[in-house]
């Protein structure tokens, strides 16, 4: 294709004569040597040299072809090869020729930026980068971030200084984001502060404001507040969509739904946002609206599986189990295949047909072989969650024989071992995870919680959970674990603050069981029952809460 393009760009008269000098007569006859007096001949010979491993000769031939050609593609190819196998002088020669032929080429400016950065030519770098930013109003400069990472430390520093200067004089938001990201990598928050100054000195584009708001994460409330300050960009559809998602994650469902309805009225083709609205409507109990939106998405190939999955959820809410089965069976793409099979298995158990639950998973493995491992893990998790851990362990052990360092399989098997009270082997699997991922906060927490909950090794558990909490201080699960080990150690007042914070972040039924137990032990029985009640709402079938109440109240 390269040769066809290059030869096709030559003037017709030259082309006819050149093709006569360099052709394959037939598969059985010998190839005629190209005429190196012509540009196509030089190009063909250069590519042949390159194919045979003689890159240096290929570079020289391309430089000769570029010198005599008016075709910018020849010069561009010469630059590329010179950068791969030539000298700095050869790169510069090829760039100069390209400049003569096509001085306004975007690709030329990009190639010159790369050359100037790699060969420490600061003036050329600044000039070329400025040309690049002026070439297109919305030029996407994101590639400069990964290019910068590939430079040596010294060149990174010089490159960053120059792109910072250019960015301050430019209205290109993409470059400003690159500068902010690079600065934040070197010194935390320095890029954010620089970007605040950049934004404050001009009317910032919506994509920059959106990027800056994301720097507030994981504090979503701060991200929302930042985004809402810039009323002039709130008409941008992407800004509105992000606001809606954040409001939804913060539990502000009505606000999120209002934004999304308005957005979709303005642009009905935004199917991702329509799906988000459908999910929020479903969670809020607006089942008719959710169904209406999801049925629209059935016409979209990209979102059809998502639509069927949530239509299945909707049918479950209406207790239309046969309809739910039909819809879940139609989910045929992505990770939702696994979630749909879990739902089908749950429906089978509700019908007292555990064998059908197994068949749903077996069928899925045949239909979706690419998801075989994930389906095996999902089935094991399902069995473990439904007091069939002894059935899950053999399958998990078999899966580990093929992938002995799978953290997900090890963790799932550890939970299964814990369920059958084989704490020694559960601990062994969790220790293996920590060997594979030293100081991983989730693994530290899992092991710490297991020791706190199922042994009397509370001091060991406390050390592990503290280490996890240092890395993820806002994790509801780890906060709950810290409260639980402190309760076990008898430090009830200390435990309360951790449970309170965990509860503010998640109304999970396990946190409810633990938090309620603490309140009960503190004599606040009414508060305990209230927490347990809320926990039941999140998981009406929670054995954890039921067993906790029975243990504490003897009822």
Characteristics:
mainly alpha; 555 residues
Give structural notes.
With 555 residues, the protein is an all-alpha fold. It has a domain at 507-555. It is built from 33 helices and no strands. The termini are far apart. Mean pLDDT is 89; it is low at 1-31.
Outline of the structure:
By secondary structure, this protein is mainly α. The chain contains 33 helices and no strands. It has helices spanning 2-8, 12-21, 39-51, 55-68, 72-85, 88-101, 106-118, 122-135, 143-149, 153-168, 173-186, 190-200, 206-214, 220-229, 237-249, 253-266, 271-283, 287-297, 304-317, 321-329, 336-350, 354-367, 372-385, 389-402, 407-419, 423-436, 441-454, 458-471, 476-488, 492-505, 509-521, 525-538, 543-553.
Number-wise, the strands total 0
Q: β content, as a range?
A: under 5%
Q: Structural class of the helices, strands and pairings?
A: mainly alpha
Indicate the percent of residues in helices: over 70%
Taking the sheet with the most strands, its summary is: none
Low-confidence stretches: 1-31
Output the number of helix runs: 33
Overall pLDDT level? 89
Question: What assembly state would you assign to the polypeptide chains in this entry?
Answer: single chain
Shape: elongated
Task: Report the radius of gyration as a whole number of Å.
Answer: 32 Å
**Between the first and last Cα atoms, what is the distance in angstroms?**
79 Å
